[in-house]
What we know:
eleven-stranded mixed beta sheet; 8 helices; 11 strands; 29% strand
Amino acid sequence: MRVLKERMSLKENWKILKEDKHILAVYKPSSLVVQGARRVEESLFHQLKEHIRIRDKKPGNVFLAVVHRLDKPVSGVVLFAKRSKSASKLFQAMQKGDFTKVYLAMVEGKFLGEGLLIDYLKHDEGLRKVIAFDKEAPSTKRALTYFESLYSTEKYSLLLLCPITGRKHQLRVATSRRGAPIVGDRLYGSKVNFGGRILLHSLFLSFPHPSTEEREDVFCPLPQSFLEVALFLTKDQRMEKLLIRLDKPFILEFLKRVRQALDKELAYVSSKDLAKV
């Protein structure tokens, strides 16, 4: 286990995935806060503003708005807007459900099949975590997640997750309450401690470009630490071959299957939710 902690504790740097005059899509390593760190300079938001200011030799303030964020222990693609008008358009698109997200999660235990996971979530201030219910209850919000199991043994499983709704800790709760917490997610029952990091990665983000209105797809490859830990835990060469296959075309094919499945679940999924995929 010490080896795992060493691999997961290696400091990784953020990386620009896509950038133009309107948007900035960045790879965020796990353990890095997007915004709101105790020390401002420790946040991805501040580091990017400083990077742009120095790179572009800007004498004044650099405008940057967080559009899509990730929890601190999660890695993957994060989206920023570089202009206020672009930020406004992106926020509107997100409110309309016009963002599509795909995550990869390694969970503890067996998790087979594919389908729509339906939960009713409520944030518990006292416990400082999200609680899930089987049925709608006061103050709960419905959470919809489509999953597909790529690999599963008695000890570990690898899942593709597509959140249809955007609730706090939605993916982490969806697997945990079904007996399969995300590896490293101590808050939701994982037995493994990676010093605050978890094996949940934002692989893919799709949204309408604020200027052209054309669909913009951003794919974020898995970090090396995720690959190494997954192989170390499973000790299965099939895992390596599977992870190598996770490219953009693979994700787009997955999203086709998601759409087809959701078309059959109209009793649970609204037209607004369907527009996301």
